[in-house]
Amino acid sequence: MAExxxxxxxxxxxxxxxLRADVIRMLAEAGSGHPGGSLSAVxxxxxxxxxxxxxxxxxPAWPDRDRFILSKGHAAPLLYAALAARGFFPAGELLTLxxxxxxxxxxxxxxKVPGVEASTGSxxxxxxxxxxxxxxxxxxxxxxxxxxLLGDGESQEGQVWEAAMAAAHYxxxxxxxxxxxxxxxxxxxxxxxxxxxxxxxxxxxxxxAVREIDGHDFAALINAFSWAAEGRECPSLILARTVKxxxxxxxxxxxxxxxxxxxxxxAARALAELEARSPFKTTGRPSVCPQFAPxxxxxxxxxxxxxGRRGETLLSGxxxxxxxxxxxx
Amino acid sequence: MNTKQQEKVATRNAYGRALVELGRRxxxxxxxxxxxxxxxxxxxxARAFPDRFFNMGIAEQNLMGTAAGFALAGKIPFxxxxxxxxxxxxxDQVRNTIAYPGLNVKIxxxxxGITVGEDGASHQAVEDIALMRALPNMTVIVPAxxxxxxxxxxxxxxxQGPVYMRLGRPAVPVLFGEDYEFRLGAAAVLREGSDxxxxxxxxxxxxxxxxxxxxxxxxxxxxxxxxxxIKPLDVETIVHLARKTGALVTAEEHTIxxxxxxxxxxxxxxxxxxxxxxVGIKDRFGESGAPAQLMxxxxxxxxxxxxxxxxxxxxxxxxxxxxx
Lengths: 329, 324
What we know:
The complex is a heterodimer of chains A (329) and B (324). Chain A starts with 5 loop residues before the first helix and ends in a 6-residue tail after the last helix. Helix content of chain A is 37%, strand content 10%. With 329 residues, chain A is α/β, with parallel strands linked by helices. In chain A, helix 1 (6-30) packs across helix 4, helix 3 crosses helix 9 and helix 5 (126-139) packs parallel to helix 6. Chain B is an alpha/beta fold. Chain B has 2 domains: 8-173, Rossmann fold, CATH 3.40.50; 188-323, 3-Layer(aba) Sandwich (Rossmann fold), CATH 3.40.50. Chain B is 43% helix and 20% strand. Chain B contains 13 helices and 14 strands. Chain B has helices at residues 11-25, 37-40, 43-48, 60-72, 83-88, 91-99, 128-133, 146-158, 204-217, 235-245, 260-271, 291-297, 302-323, and strands at 8-10, 29-33, 53-55, 76-82, 106-110, 139-141, 163-166, 171-173, 188-191, 196-200, 222-226, 229-231, 248-255, 276-281. In chain B, the strands form 3 sheets. Chain B has a 7-stranded mixed β-sheet, sandwiched between helices. In chain B, strands 9-11-10-13-14 form a 5-stranded mixed β-sheet, sandwiched between helices. In chain B, strand 13 (248-255), helix 11 and strand 14 (276-281) form a beta-alpha-beta unit. The radius of gyration of chain B is 19 Å and the shape is globular. The model of chain B has no long low-confidence stretch (mean pLDDT 97).
């Protein structure tokens, strides 16, 4: 793996703690929602919104933007927090989550929130939408990339595999799925409810390039996203091993925190834990991190410090070949 | 209008041709199918514009989701398969991913109704209008002939938002000439009359016109309205016909629950109650058989409409004696 600068990782970690705090505050205020699967995906979403995606928050419909689809739509608080932190809408709106009249619906509504690329919530559907966007991008010879975040329980939906088959068939190399493999779903461990394992082998068999990483390790995430953007013909899957409820001690690996909001008291404890670890103030509203340059040219915010051009791999050729297990197209 | 010549063309054939023509005019049109392109006639588009045609295989959930993605990237996707597989099978995909965000996806389904024929009930959508009509944001169009299909396909492409269009398998009479004008959402009164009114849709429009001629021979003049747009429904024209005739018959190759008959009953119930008889499929699935045999067996012919007109006129007289 290529070395990722320590200061970049530190910045992303700080940003991740800030998003976690936002998620906790939003859910406590809403009184309902899904903390477990929001917290497990914080590093994935942070890496995307603060390093990988080319976006223009002031021009959400910029045709060449990268697309991110939260197929596991119940992690909506995390998406909203990331979008607000990137300046798509005022962070003050975050605390209206799930309230009547709020644009921040319980599950994402693309008509209500700038930056939301697809209306999701009914599981299994986001990868198909991402495939349509990816194929349109190829047709129009635009070089945007499409990223879709899936849950592991979600991969029990048959449509995911319909989309996986079609994406490989149509050589959607501009499509990357990230699987938030936190191991738990509402009724219990994914492996006990209905095992989708082995996941890596299944995706490979469907014609995808697969890389398995620790989904909370920013260096691994950044390398994996660079690997995904290498320009191969087949779609790529990043199998991200994560911890449900990550970052809040009493929520980690607890299935009951899939769909239960913290009380005010529990939220205070969670925020205190995050604060103890954080160089960021987490008691206020999210603010724009001064270290990040404003996004005027649509490049990822902190891609440039790495010195790489978009799509340039951080891996050596041998590393890349070793990492890419199977790409049959 | 011309029922005497009896030139017959399947609406799906008109769709295939219209798509190719539209494809030339609108480079943003893409077409998706689910392994039925030879039957839905989208294979003509595939031949003309291979880069813009995507066969998604026998996977209708992904068909609808991918179409949604194309729409979100600025394309005008037409997604086609048989009506059963375009509505029931991927209903949640159409609901949550297309209709809810109001995406510009055109679902054009062929092989609707019992005129599918020999394949039987599994392939005969008799509830697709009801399913699609229930979805907010969805426009529902049921063309009556090949000419109207071509116009409706162009109108659907020009319309911003999701559309469900219902087409059939067999060749059906060409009713309208080249000068026919299609106005989305506006019912077309094809024949005037004040003794009763028939609101028909799809293949039943031709049957309604035949019924009107048979009734005219008996001295009964009935109006015939082509309700090609089931949603948004032309409430004004339906209420006008109710006021004028006081007796309505609906005719559809679809279950009487949730389709045109229900839609008209809702309008009458709220705006101008008059006796109504619904010609349609009476809460049952289809079955195998030749299309014409099935139409007879399921009570969907001109003579069934004639009988329905007689019933509704009798009922009007009874009601008049009772409460007016």
